[in-house]
Description:
Layout: E1 8-12, H1 19-28, E2 32-34, H2 36-40, H3 58-70, E3 78-81, E4 86-87, E5 90-91, H4 94-101, E6 104-109, H5 112-123, H6 128-136, H7 144-155, H8 159-180, E7 184-190, H9 196-208
Parallel strand pairs: 1-3, 1-6, 2-3, 6-7
Antiparallel strand pairs: 4-5
Helix pairs in contact: 1-9, 5-8, 6-7, 7-8
Amino acid sequence: MKSGQLQFLLIFGKTGSGKSEILRCLQNKGEQVLDLEFLAKHNGSVFGGLGGKQQLSQEVFEQAIKERLDSFHPDRPVWVEYESNYLGRLQIPGWLMNEMSRGKMIVLIVSAEKRIKRIIRTYSEHPVDKLLNAASKIRHKLNPKKYRRIRRSIMEQDYETAVSLLLTYYDRIYENALKRSEAGILVEMEISGDSPEGDAIKIAEAVSSIQGV
């Protein structure tokens, strides 16, 4: 496997920034993309398993990653979304996390308002009981009063309140991850958050204009 020869560009952004859609637009434009969420059949966060997709075994997941990497050319960068160690019950292999830590990050900035709207569009179609079950998985990480407000908001289908409260938790995770990351920041940039295709073009142009990339 030639993963050690590959240059990774990590798309980093807070929950709801549209990272997955941007990656797929980059792939459609011919860029080399490692879509870990697609391979893992999981969209990240405790809500990422909603939709009933059956995840692969760890062995099959890692094999799929290796096959994808082997199809890439080392002279061109590999775009990948910054992820935590797990996607659902599947663990991103340590060797890949190490490779990505030597890459460069593109940090996306999107307003909280647009991120909230995107999350609501993505998940509000799911049954309330499924949403409550997903939220319960991080109950132990939340202030009890905040968790009760999130639960009540979901039950009342007041998704704007529920998502706003949940983002205070997820934003803190991303901010801590950015501080801990060994990957250097290539560029920080504001994007529209409305047009994944337009944002993908803007990101690709910004990266290509930076000397040495």
